[in-house]
Specification:
By secondary structure, this protein is an alpha/beta fold. The chain contains 13 helices and 18 strands. This is Amidohydrolase family protein.
């Protein structure tokens, strides 16, 4: 009897061990790598036919058509394939939410309305099964963003191949997030910002003034040489007032964006609009005030009933024409894997193909403050590289065959791919 129980336990343990994921973070790059004979999309608008890109110890050392391999380097022939900078996903709950229907797996918000001291990075879960599905579509960096309340806390940029959040951290506390109350009731009583009161405009303006008053108090506190007591919330605002950190204002309508511009002027802050559905209407004003836009959810219906039905698709091109710095984002966390394809859609509504690529690579890096080390395939930057058999922005032709994060070749397997192969075998179609 004991022997039977032992054998059963051993079998269950073996089965359990076999079922565990074997997708591990890659080891640091140990010798030079050359990707040759590729079509290289630099990310800044430049395309190099039959080019070579070299990287050593995680950094790109050379890019061009006349680069030759030397020494004991690993040379990979990419003939017929396309090489891109890794896509960057801003404004995402990746690693903060695993199952939206299971409360225990949600760690994206804190109680209370004003929480500038909350840091999303310490809640980032590098073991999330969703991360691998993004990498397999060429998304290699993400801005992990808290939500909820009025001032939600700070986001951080992470690279998507790490053992823990400390390893993942690419740029910590890059921005503080302010969720603007809706100043126009377009939700017929209930919408994404909750039920409305009898006088929603008055209530929304009161909440905006609550945040403005908090900012004024924080600024006054930080100008004092000595404090009777330390205020953690005020202390956490120091980088914002020093312009070491940006203020990301989540809003869509013109009136809300005008308030955001007022905040930028009053507090001398570097402000970024997140959402920006109506940003095309005031593109010139945004340009004048040097306000960037994280354009959220291009695949959606218009926000207002009298907008053109294709307005969300063409807004990116209108911002590009006006000279506004913008990038693309996708709402949620698992949806981020389609970000490249949404850029492809934008390219059919006015953007060129390379402008659309920049909207999810170099532009995003500029807005997140990491463009000196990421966002394009240029010498001196991190080797965050995706290789595709076709156009990475086209759902039909894009197949990511290799990906490198800081020079490390990462595993592109994921749970969904494993299930796909499992049922191919079950039904004899492989």
């Amino acid at each position: 009897m004991k022997r039977s129980i032992y054998l059963l336990a051993l079998a269950l343990g073996a089965s359990s061990a076999y079922a565990q994921e074997t997708i591990l973070p890659a080891r640091p790059q140990d010798k030079p790598v050359y990707l040759t004979n590729a079509v290289i999309h630099v990310g800044n608008g430049q395309v190099i036919e039959n080019g070579t890109i070299a990287f050593v110890k995680g950094k790109i050392t050379a890019v061009g058509a006349g680069v030759s391999a030397s020494g004991d380097a690993t040379v990979l022939d990419m003939k017929g394939q396309h090489v891109y900078p890794g896509i960057i996903a801003p404004d995402t709950k990746l690693g903060l939410v695993e199952f939206e229907s299971v409360r225990a797996t949600i760690d994206a918000r804190e109680v209370g309305e004003i929480n500038p001291s909350i840091r999303s990075i310490v809640s980032y879960n590098t073991d999330s099964k969703v991360i691998n599905t993004l990498r397999s579509n060429g998304i290699l960096l993400a801005q992990v963003t808290p939500e909820g309340g009025l001032v939600s806390g700070t986001s951080s940029v992470v690279q998507l191949d790490a053992w823990n959040w400390e390893d993942a951290a690419y740029k910590t506390d890059d921005a503080l997030h302010f969720v603007m109350p809706r100043l126009v009731d377009i939700s017929l009583g209930h919408g994404p910002r909750g039920p409305q009161s009898k006088d929603p405009l008055k209530e929304a303006l009161e909440r905006v003034e609550k945040v403005r008053a908090f900012f004024r108090e924080a600024k006054a506190y930080l100008q004092e040489n000595k404090h009777a007591a330390t205020n953690i919330k005020f202390e956490s605002m120091r980088k914002l007032f020093n312009r070491e950190q940006k203020l990301f204002v989540h809003c869509d309508l013109v009136k809300e964006m005008l308030v955001a511009i007022d905040f930028a002027k009053e507090f001398n802050m570097d402000v970024v609009i997140v959402g920006g559905a109506d940003s095309w209407q005031i593109a010139d004003l945004l340009k004048q005030n040097n306000i960037a836009v994280v354009l959220r959810q291009p695949h959606s219906l218009p926000l207002m009933q009298d907008d053109d039905i294709d307005q969300p698709y063409k807004t990116a091109a209108q911002l590009q024409k006006a000279g506004v710095l913008f990038c693309l984002s996708n709402e949620g966390f698992w949806q981020q894997r389609n970000l490249g394809f949404e850029a492809g859609t934008a390219s059919t509504f006015g953007l060129s193909r390379e402008e659309a690529l920049s909207a999810v690579t170099l532009n995003a890096a500029k807005i997140l403050g990491i463009d000196k080390i990421a966002g394009s395939l240029e010498a001196g930057k991190d080797a965050n590289i995706a290789v595709s058999t076709g156009d990475m922005l086209d759902m039909k032709s894009s197949v990511i065959t290799r990906a490198f994060i800081q020079g490390r070749e990462v595993n592109l397997d994921n749970k969904q791919h494993q299930l796909y192969e499992k049922y191919q075998q079950k039904y004899g179609i492989k």
